[in-house]
């Protein structure tokens, strides 16, 4: 039976962002390269847990790596509806948890009551600006933030792996609509 939604499968291009946060161009070639490496890393990780990289898990990783933005589990499931075969909500959640455990994606709490995910493999470490009015999520990198992380950690004898900085406020658009 043909799923009528499959006709819209090619619309995924609307999610493409062609530059990473530091201005690096995300070419198709880089995307393919990152996806291949991510699949290898995931396969290795699953093997250690006595799990297999199934067709459904592969489809989820492919979708995650073609989505250059922050997404919720529900949004990912919607995107996957265009794929052949049904992928259950449980499989989507379980796979997101596994991808988080092996550091291919990160989970964010942007204070909106829903968890957001994004793929970080092959990407630049970055921080976020979250608009509390419209929910827009913007990204930035700023070297002194990394320096603070490293300097404080060194002083405390701590070995840093990553950091997260979320700045909450009003985006340019919402700020002009709402006088202070
Ligand atoms: Zn806004
Ligand atoms: Zn981000």
CATH level-3 fold name of the largest domain: Arc Repressor Mutant, subunit A
| Residues in β-strands, percent | 5-15%
Oligomer: single chain
CATH homology superfamily of the largest domain? Winged helix-like DNA-binding domain superfamily/Winged helix DNA-binding domain
Broad shape: globular
Largest sheet: 3 strands, mixed
Structural class: alpha+beta
Helix proportion: 40-55%
- The number of distinct structural domains comes to 2
What is the straight-line distance between the termini? 56 Å
Structure report:
With about 180 residues, the protein is of the alpha+beta class. It has two domains: about 1-125, Arc Repressor Mutant, subunit A (Orthogonal Bundle); about 125-180, Dna Ligase, domain 1, CATH 3.30.1490.190. It contains six helices and five strands; from the N terminus they run ααααββββαβα. It has a three-stranded mixed β-sheet, with no helix packed on it. The protein has a two-stranded antiparallel ribbon with strand order 1-2. Helix 2 (about 55-65) crosses helix 4 (about 90-100) and helix 3 crosses helix 4 (about 90-100). The N and C termini lie far apart (about 55 Å). About 10% of the residues are buried. The model is unreliable at about 1-15 (pLDDT under 50). The protein binds zinc ion (2 copies). The site of one zinc ion has 8 residues, from helix 6.
